[in-house]
Amino acid sequence: MGNLETYENFIQNHELCDFQQSMKWGNVKEYWKNEIIALQDKQGNIQASMSILIRKVPLFGNLMYVPRGPVGDIHQEEIFQELTTQMRKMARKYKAFVAILEPNIKKEDEEFIQLAKKLNYQIYSKAVNFHQEIQARHNFRLALENRTEEEIFRNFSSKTRYNIRLAIKKGVVVKERKEEGLDEFYQLMQETGKRDHFRIRPKEYFATILREFPEEANLYIAYYQDKPVAGIMPIQYGNKMWYLYGASGNEHRNCMATYLLQWEMIRLAKSHDCKLYDFRGVCMDQGEEGGLYRFKKGFGGELVELIGEIYIAFHPIQYILYKITKRLYDKIARKIYALKNRIKYKQRTRKGPLLFCCKKVKIVKIKIHNTKKKETY
């Protein structure tokens, strides 16, 4: 068995399994260099590992990032200490100014927190929205093991069950599309980004995920009257499935296709003997009133609050300046993006059909009052 296969098997079979610790994910992140640290016993068995992404940040130097890692018995001081020692060596090699880890560890894990502090990690557990962290700290996760589909469905909120049944009644159909559905999915993603004011990845990024994870990642599109109205990209790795990306169009949103898509993905995960369906992150700056929070909560999963970032700043002043600069840059970029979307929206409404602008209906009626054909709105 080759080193790559050995490493992948270790990650997939561990309870801390996460697709972002796969070497394949390192290939997806094409602008990052990927390095692997793996600790082996005398028999050559991997005891713990971490996949590190490394990227040069202009003006500051190299940043090292470990998404949802390390993997292994990292509560053992000897193991976590050795991983940290090897990571420090790598930091010197790349002249990194900081190493940021976002492990799959819950916030209340006091044993790990004390160990991390002993090894001179700083801990940041205050992030409440997506702009304050790399990975979302609050995630909804649905346990599937030892539960039937009927038991899982009954545990959904009444509104979620109603919307799933409504989508079925309206004739929404979910189809597996793989690479063939990429154009439709990306069009839906563009509509979602403009509507909700967030920047989206280029189409090639999603194509790369499908290419690097040919057996694990997929695309499913929901159709209403043969038109694509919503899409989802799940990824199954080990015995877990993640809701990686989702999108929906601006038309026919009342057919509740997004609810049916999630239910079909949960059923798919269950049929593949997955123990967990991970809805991934939600923002908590609005508490339980946020739309994404209420949507994901309706499927009956557990809200898991993770520890957040643990990091070692090898050059503390550089790291502080980096954080300030990044915060300002992100804030300005979001405002510019939102402004561009508003300008494009106004241009579309001016150039488009008069029927699109509801506030001008009265004026339109006056202009067409003497026409033979009666208009309806």
Radius of gyration: 24 Å
Gap between N and C termini, in Å?
67 Å
CATH fold naming of the largest domain:
Aminopeptidase
**So, the CATH homologous superfamily of the largest domain?**
Gcn5-related N-acetyltransferase (GNAT)
Output the CATH class name of the largest domain.
Alpha Beta
**Given the C-alpha coordinates, what overall shape results?**
globular
List the uncertain runs: 351-377
Question: How do you describe this structure in short?
Answer:
This protein is of the alpha+beta class.
Walk me through what this model shows.
The N and C termini lie far apart (67 Å). This protein is globular. α6 crosses α9. The protein has 12 helices and 14 strands. The protein has 377 residues and is an alpha+beta fold. Mean pLDDT is 89; it is low at 351-377. Strands 1, 2, 3, 4, 5, 6 and 14 form a 7-stranded mixed beta sheet that branches. 40% of the residues lie in helices and 24% in strands. β1 and β2 form a beta hairpin. It folds into 2 domains: 3-137 and 307-314, Aminopeptidase, CATH 3.40.630; 145-274, 3-Layer(aba) Sandwich (Aminopeptidase).
